[in-house]
Specification:
411 residues; Growth Hormone, Chain: A; 0% strand
Amino acid sequence: MNAEQKSPYRWVMAAIAGLLMTTSFISLTAFGILSSKMAIYYHVSVNELTILGIDSFSIGLFAAFFLGNGGVFNTRLKTGVLLAQLFLIVPQFLIPVFNNIIVLIILRFLQGLMIMMLALFSIQLEGWFAPDERAKSLAFTLGAISLGSAAGGLLGVAFRSFSWQESYYITGVLMLVGAIIYFALAKDSPEQKKEFIQEEKVKHESAWKNPMTWVMGIIQIPLSWTLFSIGGYLSTYSRFLGYSISESGTLVIAWGLAGFAAAFIGAVLGDRLTRKTNTNMGILKARLKVMTLADVLMAVGIILMVALGHVSFYALLMAVIINGFLMMFPPNYWALPGNIFPFVIVTEGAFGMGLISNSADAIGPLVTSSIISTVGWTGVFMIMLGLAFLGIALNIFLAKSKIKVPEGKPE
């Protein structure tokens, strides 16, 4: 470990990255909770507004990973985070201004581009944390996806006495505060930046020619599909089953809090398993064990939501909490770029993984919104279940494959 990986400041970096992701992901579920009020303003049905708003946001989540092609943010990680926050916060204040559904779709798409922070934080925190601590550092950031979703659900319910425009402005201020705290305290690792500058002078192949980019990207597709479909449509599904707006908000909060806790549990398990090995391949296999467990719990939660969701609110609540443990997956997944790619392409590789895996962010909610009226919610969840089983199979395949990773002791 270098001096930066021993510095107490590294935990400040993890915490403020987590705070920024929390405030950023308020935009995911708050929109769903506020959609009934917004639909009246835009003169469309709640279902139509939800579909347009969530799908455009989800397509932005996919497109975001085109922005890091070629390692453009290698030595400009904070600049990348600033760009992501501008995409998120500026539209948050503009959406209440325009009474035009086309403008809403464009602004929601721009907000989705903020997901590029996943790859940026993966690389930024890698500069501050040793391999056996990386998942814990990322748990702050990735668990914040669920925590921010829970906060969005909580705020959506709390703001029932406000107009939806006022709710947007208040949440926009919260996002702005999170951004100010991050940029006031965040630092890129000087040692990592120096290494990037040196490596940029070396000729290297594109990350797209590395099979690990493709395999790792595909492995997270089941998780991404379910994560953003549930995150965007859980309140809609709850209302379909006949539960109240208040109960729907409670489900979103419970799912988010379960995911936040699961991110830390998965991170601790993954980091502990990596301490038993001193090779990059060993670290990959250790984290794959936790990622497989997360896929199993994701599948169990999906089955229970379909089988028991209509029985009672508490049965659905239990299923939602179990499903929330899918968040054991991301901290281990995003802790891996430094172990599976040569350093010179690690940023490009991380963005490549994100681009492939987040294609599900665009396709998943779009498919969900398209088939709800034809095959119903059972069909929607069966697709998620099939993908969960696919994810388990792919994890096992990668663990047994001979795909090359960097040799030598992990850095």
